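Q: A reviewer asked whether we had any structural model of the full assembly, not just the individual parts. We don't, so I'm hoping you can provide one. Inputs are below.
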Amino acid sequence: MSAPPSTIANDALTYDQAGVKYDQVDPIKLLAQQSAKATAAHVAARGFNEIVASRGESAYVLDIGHSYLASIVECLGTKVLVADAVYRDTGKSFYAAIAQDTIAMAVNDLITVGATPLVVQAYWAAGGSDWFNDRKRAEDLIAGWKAACDVCGVSWGGGETPALAGVVESDTIDLGASCVGLVQPKSRLSLGDNLAPGNAIVLLASSGIHANGVSLARKLAERLPNGYQTDIGNKQTFGEALLAPTTLYVPVTEALAKAGVAVNYTVNITGHGWRKLLRHTSEFTYRIKEIPSVPAVLSFIQHEAKLDNAEAYGTLNMGAGFALFVDAKDAEKTAHIAHQCGIEAWVAGAVETGAKQVIIEPIGVTYSADDLKLR
Amino acid sequence: MSAPPSTIANDALTYDQAGVKYDQVDPIKLLAQQSAKATAAHVAARGFNEIVASRGESAYVLDIGHSYLASIVECLGTKVLVADAVYRDTGKSFYAAIAQDTIAMAVNDLITVGATPLVVQAYWAAGGSDWFNDRKRAEDLIAGWKAACDVCGVSWGGGETPALAGVVESDTIDLGASCVGLVQPKSRLSLGDNLAPGNAIVLLASSGIHANGVSLARKLAERLPNGYQTDIGNKQTFGEALLAPTTLYVPVTEALAKAGVAVNYTVNITGHGWRKLLRHTSEFTYRIKEIPSVPAVLSFIQHEAKLDNAEAYGTLNMGAGFALFVDAKDAEKTAHIAHQCGIEAWVAGAVETGAKQVIIEPIGVTYSADDLKLR
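A: Here is a predicted structure for the entire assembly that you could use as a starting point for your response.
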């Protein structure tokens, strides 16, 4: 973690200890970003202009005339290893759940620009042909993938199912998804141009850890005498609780568009937890007055990993998976529409003039601009 | 391989021996395809119709009104392991080359439907953060990726660079690319509706093995006393020859469109070698009268792996990486335009009425419909 928001206990788990070294990846990421940026001229020569502001955002946007084209590729990450371990230990398959997680990683990012996701492609790189011989997990993966497409209203266009012995570890699978969609009408583009003081911040509930903070959770499981089989206090095991599938937020953004609610900006709360609320480049203060009850699995991680609130809310979603920034007059309506989609939501706070910071009043935590370096 | 086209020597290498078991993956692929097909209704409800015929083809196509939207995700496969081995043994980096291969896997498939590729996303899943610490290979990967985007005229939109210790083997990287493009004007759609007897078959030269048949080549390297350092007879080592980057065919299809040459159908010659010429669902005979000189690396593989011609041309590209099916009157012009793009091309044969088969006259090999089961 590039900027630990607070002092942490000696035996606390940090992301660095969990093997994720953001600092090491970043200089190369920067070079890749600069090289990528230089290629925009090619499509301009073909008559298509990229939306420059989308390069720092969660999906890439191209102006194709009558609408904007948004595209993305995303990776599930190491959550598959939790599903593998639970499957080995208990025989319970959560491959349908991680299929949903994988699609969620892509679509929940794609909708942040205001796009309607249309096509999802599957990237399933197995450690060997044998992976697909276990029909139960393979069929669950397919069923979960299809069910997530059903929820999001997207067409599963196809994909790749290579057997990559020697590249992917044997008996596991590298799961990714690409997604393409359209911003239509173009007025739905939500890159934050209309984000302004006075906007309400509506938060949508998460279902659990989603797919961020998983390396930390895996490291914690290694420390626990019963590992993933540890009862977290609500009659769920740690492993099963971790594997609650990520909420798909597409129905909410589509329902808002249908209802004519203009969304000024959105943030998918993934890595960096609530620090992600600082994502937009503008200088605003984001004041949060209402926080949700924390999912049991995240309370358990916070307690067992000895994270203080600043560390926990700066790493995990702590019950809020997606943030919508709307005009104050639309705030209650926005939350209501999310409820109608079966997703808990609440008007959590507001955008204010002031230094770039997130103030989470109920827990007395503040993150400043220095706590989030995404670009 | 589902249908070995001929008897092979006892010590010959087959795909099955090389660890690729198509038969095992296929039933699950079929289930995935059926499940995917069922999701098309979602986008239809949103006013977008999929092009049903594209489901059996190399890229997925959706009608978005003024144009068709084509999308795809592709994987490099195990060619990275060849680059890893050569880098370990000699210090020579071919990561720029395999970056081009990865993009080629995506764009060369996308253009088969008549699309202009517009955006490429990078999927680089490393075995750990350390992969990117080796600046030479990381910078080469980025440089090769950008250069391939430059050749194809696409915008590099972004991507994912996760560190996936435990999922991807340490010290290697799982490389993939997603690509999205438009078929515009819609008349460029080349799903084969206009494929007809009398059409000419124009073949475009390959640069070497491209990224198909690599498992076989890797198995062969294990057998050779000097492995990848074996001189293949043209002052190149086996490893370096294998790592010639895949030809990017986008400039040719774009130049043909600009010149007003209608392309009736195309085939990217990848897995299954020249059997891929049977790809279209129609019942036609494809008669080949001119074959290219075979790249040294492929001759070497054929000789060392003791493959007869039927096996070699049914597995490897043998010098032809892409096939264009055009009206006979456009045949020479098509080859000429490819030459102008710096890619060798020749009018190789023609489509005829008759049983579904490929007849390669110069080597006396015939593949029938039973030799290719893609759907």
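A: Points you may want to mention in the reply: Chain B has two domains: 1-38+190-375, 40-189. Chain B touches chain A through 85 residues (CB under 8 Å).
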